[in-house]
Write a structure and sequence with these properties.
This protein has 534 residues and is of the alpha+beta class. Helices cover 22% and strands 31% of the residues. Among the domains are: 182 residues, DD-peptidase/beta-lactamase superfamily (Beta-lactamase, 3-Layer(aba) Sandwich); 82 residues, Lipocalin; 87 residues, Lipocalin (Beta Barrel). The radius of gyration is 23 Å and the shape is globular.
């Protein structure tokens, strides 16, 4: 790009990030073209307390963007003949439960293992990301499971457990800590001097931005106390991730076999292609192939986005929990694609077309729920398990959250219903929920799940009902309950990242008495809480 073209790009990036210019946390954005960092802009403070601005050397926790590096280590060990990615993971981690026997190392990398997410397992026990726990607690939760979300290879569901286990495999085969393996094999050879794996969050990191979240109209330091492994333990910077993007382009360290392997997708057992490659999402955008991954940790959000055919990469990292780097990175990519003649993004339907979709819906088979809201300007939000996502139109007429870690598309299906498409091309019809349901009067009681190692106590509270979770690590705060249908309940679970919810369906004995609650969350499906009797 010419100097004037670069200046124009910088000006447009500055306009995108201008709302966060000032005395709060902010965001940094970099653009890589032809292997060079052609633009790097930032606003806001790395430390609100000390008035330190975000700069070129500022480091951030990049959370799940770490997953591709863990997968790269696995693929490197495979290239050296130390493991077979199509072999069962249990061969290398024999303590894994019997339910995991058929799961391959490749399925861990593709998020098709069916293993429940370890962070959500802790959530069932009342723990949040600010709850102090040990890595052993996370592993124990994984090992305690006797069932899976689905048959391995048949579906996709994002699970941090997969990459935690991959990190353990790397350490077992190398006899070294994951942080040392990544540094020796990748960071040091590439000159990524700002990048390191940091499992212990209490260790000071030079130039590390503090993460902040919004609370009561102001900012607080984001609480986070979970240890970090192969699923999300890296700190890095825009400059270092730009080096990594250039490396992906040149197929340099540790070689073309490994770097190409990160981008390789695989089909589900039904033949439908899984868009989740190996620590990267392979998804077309405006007709252009892209490889990307987001990162989300309390107070930190990251987007790493490559468009290899255009020789472009965009990196956006924030230390403000309310900023969406994913959206900003794609808006920057839009600026660049508009100059290249890429196809236009599909336009959203008119507001009058969208308004009839607004409401609450339930999946009759599982009790999972969906809220659709349409704002005055037509912006449509799809919310599942408390995670709101701005919908975008697809080329084939669906409303989707195409850049999310979840696969979820919706379209109208006649009065009072929507058709929902999930991963592996699975579709079902969800029906609109009437607003006049009441909680089951016999719901109060104690419910126990051995897999979650949790006791849930439901009791009357302020004219409604509340639930307290007693888990293996903590006794959690009260969660409010909301009726969905006569036998379906939404359990509101406030958390550091979002005010989420779990969907619970009442299971009854033939006598009509409650036998259990069957609970579905975003990444833990069909957890059964049996009701205590006597």
């Amino acid at each position: 790009m010419t100097d004037l073209a670069t200046r124009a790009l910088e000006n447009r990036i500055d306009s995108l990030i201008a709302p966060w210019r000032g005395a709060g946390p902010g965001i940094t954005v970099g653009v890589v073209r032809g292997g060079e960092l052609i633009a790097h802009r930032h606003v806001g403070l790395a430390s609100v307390e000390h008035g330190v601005p975000i700069g070129g050397a500022t480091r951030f926790r990049i959370a799940s963007v770490s997953k591709q590096f863990t997968c790269a280590a696995i693929l490197l060990l495979a290239a050296r003949g130390l493991l077979d990615i199509e072999a069962p993971a249990k061969d290398l981690l024999p303590d894994l439960p019997g339910a995991y026997a058929a799961i391959t190392i490749a399925q861990l990398m593709h998020n098709t293992s069916g293993i429940r997410d370890m962070l959500e397992l802790q959530r069932h026990g009342g723990g949040d990301l600010g709850t102090p726990i040990a890595a052993a607690d996370l592993l124990e939760a994984i090992l305690r499971q006797r069932s899976l979300n689905f048959e391995p290879g048949s579906r996709y569901l994002y699970s941090n457990s997969n990459f935690f286990l991959l990190g353990l495999i790397v350490e077992k085969l190398t006899g070294a800590a994951l942080e040392d393996v990544l540094a020796h094999e990748f960071f040091l050879p590439l000159g990524m001097t700002a990048t390191r794996h940091t499992p212990n969050l209490t260790v000071p990191i030079p130039d590390l931005a503090t993460g902040y979240v919004v609370q009561d109209g102001g900012f607080i330091r984001a609480p986070h106390a979970f240890p970090l492994g192969g699923e999300g333990g890296l700190v890095s910077s825009v400059i270092d991730l730009a080096i990594w993007a250039r490396n992906a382009r040149t197929r340099g360290v540790p070689g073309a076999c490994v770097l190409a392997g990160l981008e390789r997708t695989a089909p589900f057992t039904n033949g439908t292609m899984n868009l989740y490659a190996r620590g990267l999402v392979a998804r077309p955008y405006r007709g252009v192939p892209t490889f990307s991954h987001g990162g989300l940790w309390p107070g930190y959000r990251t987007e790493y986005l490559r468009a290899p055919d255009q020789d472009l990469a965009v990196i956006a990292i924030a230390n403000h929990g309310g900023i969406d780097p994913n959206l900003i990175a794609h808006r920057v990519l839009d600026i660049l694609l508009d100059r290249s003649g890429a196809v236009a993004a599909p336009t959203m339907p008119e507001k009058d077309t969208l308004l009839p979709l607004a409401g609450r819906y339930i999946a009759p088979e599982t009790g999972a729920t969906l809220d659709i809201t349409v704002a005055d300007d037509g912006t449509t939000t799809l919310s599942t398990n408390g995670m709101p996502s701005i919908a975008e139109a697809t080329v084939d007429g669906w409303l989707a959250v195409p850049r999310s870690s979840a696969v979820f598309q919706v379209r109208g299906a006649g009065p009072g219903a929507v058709e929902v498409m999930l991963d592996a091309g699975v579709t079902s019809h969800w029906r609109r929920v009437a607003p006049d349901a009441a909680l089951p009067s016999d719901l109060p009681g104690v419910y126990v799940s051995e897999e979650m190692a949790a006791r849930w106590i439901v009791s009357e509270a302020r004219g409604g009902m509340a639930l307290r979770a007693h888990g293996p690590v903590v006794r959690g705060p009260a969660w409010s309950l909301e009726p969905i249908t006569a036998e379906d309940v939404r359990i509101h679970v406030p958390g550091t990242l979002a005010r989420g919810w779990l969907d619970a369906r009442v299971e009854r004995h033939g006598s009509g008495a409650i036998a259990a609650l069957i609970v579905n969350g975003g990444r833990v499906k069909a957890a059964r809480y049996a009701r205590e009797t006597g």
